[in-house]
Fold this sequence. Notes:
By secondary structure, the chain is α/β, with parallel strands linked by helices. The chain contains twelve helices and twelve strands.
Amino acid sequence: SxxxxxxxxxxxxFRVHGKKLHAVENVSFTLEAGxxxxxxxxxxxGKSTLGRMVLRLxxxxxxxxxxxxxxxxxxxxxELRALRQNMQIIFQDPxxxxxxxxxxxxxxxxxxxxxKIGTKASRRARVVELLERVGLPDxxxxxxxxxxxxxxxxxVGIARALSLNPKLxxxxxxxxxLDVSIQVQVIQLLRDLQEEFNLxxxxxxxxxxxxxxxxxxxxxxxxxxxxxxxxxxxxFQAPTHPYTQVLLNSILKIPDSPEQKQEMQSIQGExxxxxxxxxxxxxxxxCPFAMDVCKTAKPDKKAVxxxxxxxxxxxxRSEAAHAN
Length: 324
Ligand code: SF4
Ligand code: MG
């Protein structure tokens, strides 16, 4: 079957104070319709930049993005508008993308009106139907963003995205600002909607535990590069890149004392500045398995098994056993 989305060697460099910042470097993946790719990384890893490039809210410097058989870099502005209907994004802070002076029902209707979907009456009926589908009462259509909780607002954001019948939804840290119990509800809602509408997701988070439930495949980003990519089960059962192992350990050990928390952070260390990335393997200053070669030579992407890749000098060496 043809993938819904193909991302091929996409890169993005920004100029910051006269220096080059490689925000995203040579990222490739394919995504089948109805599936979820989880993208995990710390802040500054390039995950939001990548999401924006897929939507072409940001132009990539090189590489190709093929959506539904169409090479997005060749699409004219006008066609892009029609394509955008098929590709929606949900942000961490839904308030930021809602007009504070517009009722949430009007905001959802407005999204449909912009894309010339239905009549005024049919759009209004659809607003109510969508609100109900995301677990909100009818009356909420008359409420303004400041009157709603974070969880309710995120449901409104989801309803608005759904109103356009998208194929792909990019979820950029959609639950990070919510209480844990609400996070679970919103993730379950996203999963139910995916099944019902055969939605395809890119789910971006700094938290591996959050992407686990939804993802079919997971890509781990570190300083703009994919350091490991695998089917979700495989990534959790056989994490191969030392960075993925650190991320996994940090979700398994919930720190319950300040001392423990302190210890965890000192093991992990700080993320280096993307403006001045370390030579060789960019993870080497934080890596418990770093060897001399890691300080000078950049590791290539290597296959661990079918569909499972890691960018680490340990892959294929006997030492890899110790890292697992
Ligand atoms: Fe660690 Fe070396 Fe692998 Fe980088 S290449 S993750 S420093 S072992
Ligand atoms: Mg971000």
